[in-house]
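Follow-up to my post from last week.
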Amino acid sequence: MTAFVLRRLAQSIAVLLAVGLVAFLLFRYVGDPISGMVGQDTSLQEREELRQRLGLNDPAPLQFARFVGNAAQGWFGLSYRTSEPVSRMILERMPATLELALVAALFAVLVGVPMGVWTGLYPRHWSSRLLQAVSLIGVSLPTFLIGILLILVFAVILGVLPSFGRGDTVQLGWWTSGFFTLSGLKALILPSITLGLFQLTLIMRLVRSEMLEVMRTDYIKFARARGLTNRAINFGHALKNTLVPVITITGLQLGAIIAFSIVTETVFSWPGMGQLFVQSVQFADIPVMAAYLLLVALFFVLINLVVDLLYYAVDPRLRSGAATAGARGH
Amino acid sequence: MKAELRRWALAGAAALALGLGAASTTEAKTFKWANAGDVSSMDPYYRNETFLLAFLENIYDPLVRRDEKLGLEPALAVKWGQMSPTTWFFDLRPNVKFHDGSPFTADDVVFSLNRASSGGSNLKGNFTSVKEIRKVNDHRVEVDTKYPDPLLASKWALILIMSKAWAEKNNAAVAADATKNEENFATRNAMGTGGFMLKERRAGEKTVLVPNPNWWDKPKHNLTEVIFTPIPNPATRVAALKAGDIDMMYEVPPQDTDGLKRDANLKVIEGPETRVVYLGFDHERDELLESNIKGKNPFKDRRVREAFHRSIDVQAIRRAVMRGQSFPTNLMVAPGINGYVKELDKRPPLLKPEEAKKLLADAGYPDGFETGMDCPNDRYVNDEKICQAVVAMLARIGIKVNLLAQTRSKYFSKILRKADNSPGETSFFMLGWSPATTYDVHNVFESLIQTPNKETKKGLFNVGGYSNKKVDELSDKMEQETDTEKRDAMIYEATKLYTEDYAYIPLHQQAVIWAARKNIELHQPADNRFPLRFVQVK
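User reply:
Got it. Predicted complex:
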């Protein structure tokens, strides 16, 4: 078990290095940060000098090596756009993104799983058909459109929820939290629905199909024959056996929620890492982009690790064969 | 029982209403506004960028500032002028205090001017003529220049004065520099003498200002707090304004103006901006980079430039692309800038396609030709759409234009002149320019029209290398001419020369469009600065 975790962590460093190298190879195509850093009447010599000092004329692998060298010492450089330390810029925005992602994921799971169970148990019921139809909308409408529609209805027409931002926050050490103020909680509602809707429909459809599958199996029939209650059958036997794929998908989707909060954060002007990344791309702010991409890669790696560990908790077959840790189900 | 209950309820409601009423009369006048992007720093020398300088002008004062009509008026200097052609003096306002209560003196001025002209400062360009800055006494500063510089005070309206003691104490004595390995204290903090004080700065999220109760000037605003938020998405910005979550939005997308005008709670404030958007040619290469004509450069022929100029219908662009939000022009400077010549701001009449084709045939291109065109797609209002319209207009006279529109960071590195003074990699391009440092036409001549020269630093942004000896001469002379009448005559002559030469195709000034709630009174200057000192919440 420990060996497995250590091996996965070692692999993740390789993944991070690969992501970083690819990122640096791509940065040459995002444009020239210099034109944004200087005023319109800065002379060309000064521009060239600045480029030289920032090391932008060096080949990409060299720039990457320098970045890794500095990063290993905990220094991610100054943003080209604001001259603030990149590590602080990202740390300051991380709480906003993680809180939003957490609420969105909870929303997706807590609403998606029951809906999936319901539609799986009663596939012919009118309400199941309605949920199925509605979920199609969730899958097919683009995120920014849903966000704008929600803003239009709840902020502009009804005027009950804020149209943008995070509301008031409470400082807990370096972490800023919107969970403890009314305006902070209200501000979370629309963005987390927007962000979680796609995942919700995905989870619902997944649970539904898995439930349909499982309910046809023999052990459910035997469980019924044993006279177990519906509740024990549906949740104790059926749902539990659908969970392995659901956990995989939910875990991977949590990474996706963090990474793709970019669109939701832009629509709601949510002061998180995604918005920071978009601003940085427009400016070709290479230090911020590099640090952000590595961080997101790190999130994905860690979440995958946690997902793998969760299999052990859910699937007893893996626990018995835990010595050969490479054998992962599904 | 029931009646009693109702009485209590009524009394409660009345008390509540009274309480609310009382609260609203003494209510804090908080003003919330938004822009697409954040102020990139609190350091007033960090970028030579209108939005940053205008924002910080609320916190810091310059020596002389722009009034409502863009003229100069006293700020931290009460009197200024030239003692001799090469010496300027500034008499400073007495009894001015910084936000921390420390007194403002000539030391702060000398310190700030030196800070703005060294290190990572982006405003060094305003100090090219300066030889020495010296303190005479606590309330007088004198400046020696290398040559007569009649525009010095004008340029320095951009230089905001910060506290010397504060900067030195906090290790911020040198302007922020992105290539350094440490953060500059002034990036997030501010210490000026201005009408507002920085209360809270959360980069990318919000910036909160409160009025300075000890300001030397009498405030024309009635605000008690100002909250600025960047909202990048234009649709969200509009929604936030309609919902009343913000009171004012800076830079409204033109396609949203009609919708905002229809909303009874809102008003749209618009006017011409000082920036001119124009098209330029490669005048310099002997063969165009992106053309089917080999061995010669068609744009060197004035007739070709005339055919282009007189086939582009700026009124149609105004109607169809800009939705009326543009001000067509024939000059490279806008009204409100010193040296704008009204009599010459008349576009020559449009040519019929046959007439334009005849001009091209006379120049040796009876079948037209093919050329590349470069255009930004996120720099100016509707930039890419304007270029597409131009492509269609030129197609009618037999010119095939291959348009390449790209994002600003890629665009500028392609088209700007290179460090070795070779022309930008473009044949035909779009740019916008505002002489925002001096508000004087000489800046336009010097940067865009004079022959590019690395040594004298002229024509650095003359991307296509237009060159006219007579204009060069006039521009050099007007730089140092202190007699206004003689100078105006030079400006007139030089303006006539470049327009008759069809050196560039000026298109229009785009409109500055802001929107606000109905209860907000504000002032909109043509240089797109937003001074908080004129804002009233009714």
